[in-house]
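Team,

Forwarding the record for the chain on the shared tracking sheet. I've put the sequence and predicted structure together so nobody has to dig through attachments.
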Amino acid sequence: MVATHPPQKVTVIGAGMVGLSTAWFLQEHGVQVEVVDREGVAAGSSWGNAGWLTPGLSTPLPDPAVLSYGIKAVVSPASPVYVPVTTDLRLLRFLATFTRNSTMRRWNRSMRALAPINARALAAFDALHEGGVAEPTHEAHSFLAGYRSKAETDFMLTELRHIAEAGQEMHFEELTGEEVRALEPTFSEIVGAGIRLFDQRYIHPPRYVASLADSVRARGATIRTGVTVTGLTPETKGVRLDVAEGAPEVHEQVVVANGTWISSLVRGLGVRTPVQAGRGYSFSSPIDHEPSGPVYLPNERVACTPLGDGRLRVAGMMEFRPPEAPLDQRRVEAVVEAARPFLRGVDLDHREDEWVGSRPCTPDGLPTIGATSSPRVHVAGGHGMWGITLGPATGQLLAEAMVTGRPVPELTPFDPLR
């Protein structure tokens, strides 16, 4: 269901990559925009993530590999996928549905749904650059995945074949350990095999999202921070927002793009797909030799990205806990110990910017993008690990749908009312 007339003014709730991209592309259509956020620009998962622009790897989070960990593994603080023992019925229902979706058949179906939006991901970043976003994206001259042995590459090679079968173009080559280290000395002697991915990029996440916010402001928008929206109600002539810091506000149309907190605002508007916090951890460490692209440890689920200042961002973990839970130092140590054998020249014992943030995850691995049961309220989120990669394409497509009132085929699988 869509609004009968193009919006004149839209309020976006959430100042991360997805929300700001939506605001920017709405401005491209001449829409007046305001952005509100409870903390600030890039205050959530847009700040501490790995910063990969990797449409070639933007795959559904529920996959058969998750099931291979087993119950004993996922309750271990050292596991890359961690689920604490809980009596939270909402989380238990989410995990049950997530597990049902972790089959090859459902993964393939979701991958086919993601391929069209993945294909638009990098072009959307190019549109932002051409439109005035100053912070650059960086070509990954070497994007390398490292393994202990050739046998360990089988799962990713199979996944890459399935990605290609889903209609997504992906170029890669297999390497020996010696070839991996020749391309990237950051890998240690323990690496016996690798895969090199082509045509991917990366960014410095806080700098990029701050630059995007600057561009949104320069084009006439207001970004208000310290605004906690606790509820919304569609009315005859607008949408009433209940705000913790003051009196209710009425806005013409609203896009809810506040990540993990989406469900709390739109649950009563026909949106049945829950958005759950899948928390990730990261930190930065000094490095002797800065890589020319991301360094990936797939089996350990650790992602490393050069920050351009002699430091390497190291990120990992998928922790299903409440978003407000404090940083758990055991999880940081688990990422450190998983990465340590594979890296050299990285001082993992002198860490800065230790961080935990909540990725907004859905149980079927697909984002939720589009109109709710109210034509005045749209949703953009639930991208899991791929909000940075797909944020601009999401904003571009959603803005088109809102302004034209016509369905956008790439967004059909992500219908919030599915």
